[in-house]
Amino acid sequence: MRKPCCDKQGINKGAWSKQEDQKLVDYIRIHGEGCWRSLPKAAGLHRCGKSCRLRWINYLRPDIKRGNFAQDEEELIIKLHALLGNRWSLIAGRLPGRTDNEVKNYWNSHLKRKLVEMGIDPNNHKLNQYPVPPQPHHAATTSMNVACKLRVSSTDNDGVSDAASYLEDETHAAVSNLDLDLTIAFPSSPIKINEENQKKTAPIARNDHEEQYTVPTLLLFR
DNA sequence: AAACCCTGCAACCGCCGGCAT
DNA sequence: TATGCCGGCGGTTGCAGGGTT
To answer: Which part of the chain is the Myb-like domain (predicted)?
Structure first.
């Protein structure tokens, strides 16, 4: 039986007060990040160590970039999610000043919906649309530059785990500027994400045709 | 103006892996 | 090798605030 991370009695929960924030910041400024379990007591906080760590990492750290995500950050999150899946800490590690919690929240509240609206399954980054006649400019490319063709390295891009281990490998830490080509590239039958079609095409109707059409797969996962 | 609904975000919970003993 | 501790992670929840009816 595992012990709880801290004694629940006499422990504050919920939103942090200004005073608590100040105590935490002051303590870490002097002593640095360290043993989170003993920190609350040492800092005079009635909080569990985990809570302190979370508060510091997600909110109080001085290098945190707050505010809206830029377009390039959005694109990078989408690309990295296609590579790594829900490995938010790894994704956040590629976005200076952003935390895993923030990236996760942004994905769940904004990007997921955005991809769905574009006819892209946010879980596997595959297009849900039917092939339609080729168009000179793909709607998705202009609005989001969705990750369809990803070049991580010249040879290995055959799956999430490989990409993840690649990114995790500290020896490759310098490779933060992955060459990720974002253009939609359908080898044989380019398709158009047409918002009108999207509205008309009910999910049930799509299912009826799933057998007939080969749903295009992002190059990464081919 | 009030009630209800929706959205975004901060925080919590439980699990897992690494490490020390 | 087994066990326990600790930090880190991802999923989930709860709530505040804004929008809509």
So the answer is: 8-60, 61-111
